[in-house]
From TrEMBL:
Lineage of producing organism: Bacteria, Bacillati, Actinomycetota, Actinomycetes, Pseudonocardiales
Gene it is expressed from: rimO
Protein name: Ribosomal protein uS12 methylthiotransferase RimO
Predominant cellular place of this UniProt entry's protein: cytoplasm
Enzyme class, UniProt record, top EC level: transferase
Top-rank taxon: Bacteria
Reactions that this protein is recorded to catalyse: L-aspartate(89)-[ribosomal protein uS12]-hydrogen + (sulfur carrier)-SH + AH2 + 2 S-adenosyl-L-methionine = 3-methylsulfanyl-L-aspartate(89)-[ribosomal protein uS12]-hydrogen + (sulfur carrier)-H + 5'-deoxyadenosine + L-methionine + A + S-adenosyl-L-homocysteine + 2 H(+)
Source organism (scientific name): Kibdelosporangium aridum
Amino acid sequence: MSETPFAGSYPDSVSSPTAKRRVAMFTLGCARNEVDSEELAGRLTGSGWELSEADNAEVIVVNTCGFVEQAKKDSVDTLLAAADTGAKVVAVGCMAERYGKELAESMPEASAVLGFDEYPELAARLDEVVHGKQVESHVPVDRRTLLPISPVQRQDTDLAVPGHGWGPRVMRTRLDDSPVAALKIASGCDRRCTFCAIPSFRGAFVSRTPEEILGEAAWLAENGARELFLVSENSTSYGKDFGRGMDHLEKLLARLAAVDGIKRVRVSYLQPAETRPGLVKTIATTPGVADYFDLSFQHGSGQVLRRMRRFGDCDSFLGLTEQIRALSPNAGIRTNVIVGFPGETEEDLRELERFLVGARMDAVGVFGYSDEEGTEAAGFDDKHDEDTVTERVARISALVEQLTMERAEDRVGDEVIVMVEQADDEVIGRAAHQAPEVDGECVIEDGDGLAVGDFVRCRVESAEGVDLIVRPLEVVT
């Protein structure tokens, strides 16, 4: 969970004959939300608004997260804090889309609660807010019903989907100067996992066209990006709505890696059951593509996975990790798991432990199950009490900590290519097996003279938890 205040003026700003309105933005949640915020910033600056600090803004836009209870609480707290500045407050994002009028009624501090369909007209809505006009709150619908059932018919619809359908100009403003930039390749999800509400407010799966993605990638490279972090709700489904072939993601990755100025492409949100051998080979062996596998395993027990309405089991998942390491022994693999799911037995937990020990992953997020409103699992029997879930989270977390530390120690003596992301008191970056914010980092010793955005061949000297201490050998040109 991240919260990012955005400030300053940017090259995309369009001059106006009158004084510009000032808007501040806060983003909560995942990298997909960060992309959406940059779209909103681009639309606003393109309509004459100026991005500013919160204490100097007329309006604060809060891009909320609505995934789990803690994320909702963080979003509400941020909305309240924004209102304390005296500025008008507008809620957008997943929580606003999911709850709409209900959120507006419970939070009079917000001047407007807007859904995704209002993103193209956000500047006009903010003008109305500033002038004291009543802006109608979003009325939620199940967004899965707004696109055709058949995936191949979805490319012809004109539904507003954040980050899709831009014209010749990239409708985006970079909100930081990081050398890594998230790039959305698709939105929505057609899966029906029993614990997840995301498809109901993010909608059915729809891919962006390769031309649109490549155009944005080139723009990001021109604006300082050196690594592209590909995001979606389910990247392995990319291109299924194009109606031809099954290797669209493989082809896209190769083309993105060839974009001038881009040194590394990283793909995230892979579904294990949809991860094809050809995709594994492309990610593991294509120059310029990080040999990094962000696989959503969720558990290791086939019985629990079936109750989650997912596919696979311990042995099939271990087979996938073995396939990856046969092609790239040092590939990075990360996942998230849910423990304490309704009906989970001690045998199921041991099966999860067997999987974690055998898979030797670099990073594992451990989450305790809790009911999520509107999901099928919320109505399941055989739920565990809070103490049991907490104990199981602690048990699996302790195992994960040990395993990931051992995995990091296995890399001592190896050479890694590190992208420098910080070069001040400490020089810090990430290797191919480390995604932004979640997978640890590399601390570069004797890194004087290195600059942010440099790619450096380093030798791993030691490990501290999942972080690596590395020594530079040469800058890779």
